[in-house]
Automatic annotation (TrEMBL):
Family: Belongs to the CorA metal ion transporter (MIT) (TC 1.A.35) family.
Subcellular location, principal: membrane
Membrane-spanning residues: 289-309, 321-341
Localisation: Cell membrane; Membrane
Name of the protein in its database record: Magnesium transport protein CorA
One family name in Pfam for this protein: CorA
Gene Ontology molecular-function annotations: cobalt ion binding; cobalt ion transmembrane transporter activity; magnesium ion binding; magnesium ion transmembrane transporter activity
Keyword Membrane: yes
Family annotation (InterPro entries): CorA_cytoplasmic_dom, CorA_TM1_TM2, Mg/Co-transport_prot_CorA, MgTranspt_CorA/ZnTranspt_ZntB
Key word Transmembrane present: yes
């Protein structure tokens, strides 16, 4: 099974393991702290989570890349994050969701990316505090490059609002990465539609792979719609009324993506039906030709069988023109049947 065909599943501990147990990942994470506010913007690479949190900040974004169980455990110890939340962070394949806790918001999203081996998903977990946003990303990625550039400008809404707006900007950037993925999948659909009738044997594996990719995106987008809706429904002081307006815009994007995704899934299903219809039609054409050939040879076989019997008294065998006459009868009979079939439109 190729990497593109692997179904992404959440990792679970052995049965009976205590809830909140952090798995050993063996990964070394990198930590970067972006501090911003009235004194400007700074970016600092820290050797550990503890060192990053010890740095002075007005508002900050702690970016942790890599699922390092030691870094995540330190994060929970320093910021009072619940062990079950820490466990969810370290187990990729989570269902996108939003949770409201006493002093922070927890948000999980799977961001898709098309690579050389196929569709991949990167889990991004966000912890939103009053003055800090922590993002834990499964692996290095370019998803938040635009947010970094906006921070580097030193002005804009990121500086006008609190950390909840930074969290919105990160979620919005993650959702926006669905658009180029769906666009490329749409281009693949159009290409398959053009070559389906000419090269249907080669197109079937690609069509099945595309349907699997669309299904994986659907499994990410449907829970994401619920997660964004949950953020809007929850009355949390960490999400200001001004930022809720922008979160509703993210919800609109998710709904629009779902509409596109469903239309692509219907198109892929139609292409599969078209493929099956084409195969059935070609099979019927082959069977019709074979049936016509068999029908033509049926009377000829009868004639040859009659005169192939070993009887001593067959008057036709003694006639000097019997052999060419028999050939003439069979040729006329075959041509007559061909003409009759053609007139009826069977050939």
């Amino acid at each position: 099974m190729t990497p593109a065909m692997v179904r992404r599943l959440k990792r679970y501990h052995p049965p009976g393991t205590s809830p909140g147990t952090l798995p050993e990942t063996g990964v070394r994470a990198s930590c970067e702290l972006f501090t911003y506010g009235s004194k400007g913007v700074s970016k600092t690479s820290a050797p550990s989570v503890a060192a990053a949190l010890a740095l002075p900040r007005e508002r900050g974004w702690l970016r942790i890349t890599g699922l390092d169980n030691r870094a995540v455990a330190e994060l929970g110890k320093r910021l009072g994050v619940h062990p079950l939340v820490l466990e969810d962070i370290l187990n990729p394949g989570q269902r996108p969701k939003a949770e409201t806790h006493a002093s922070y918001l927890f948000f999980v999203v799977d961001v898709p990316a098309l690579t050389e081996v196929g569709l991949e998903e990167v889990q991004v977990s966000l912890l939103v505090f009053s003055d800090l946003v922590v993002s834990v990303e499964e692996k290095p990625n370019p998803f938040f490059a635009t947010v970094e550039k906006r921070l580097a400008l030193g002005s804009g809404r990121l500086f006008q609002f609190g950390s909840d707006y930074l969290a919105y900007a990160l979620v919005d950037a993650a959702v926006d990465h669905f658009f180029p993925v769906l666009e490329k999948l749409g281009e693949r659909l159009e290409g398959m539609e053009e070559v389906l009738l000419q090269q249907h044997d080669q197109i079937l594996p690609q069509l099945h792979q595309l349907r699997r990719d669309l299904l994986r995106l659907r499994r990410s987008l449907w829970p994401l719609r619920e997660a964004v809706g949950a953020l809007l429904r929850e009355e949390s002081p960490l999400l200001s009324p001004e930022v809720r307006v922008f979160v509703r815009d993210v919800q609109d994007h998710v709904l629009y993506l779902l509409d596109i995704l469903e239309s692509y899934r219907e198109t892929a299903a139609s292409l599969l039906e078209l493929y099956l219809s084409t195969v059935a039609q070609r099979t019927n054409e082959v069977m019709k030709v074979l049936t016509v050939i068999g029908t033509i040879f049926l009377p000829l076989t009868f004639i040859v069988g009659v005169y192939g019997m070993n009887f001593q008294h067959m008057p036709e065998l003694a006639w000097p023109w019997a052999y060419p006459a028999l050939w003439a009868i069979m040729v006329v009979l075959a041509l007559g049947m061909l003409r009759a079939f053609r007139r009826r439109g069977w050939l």
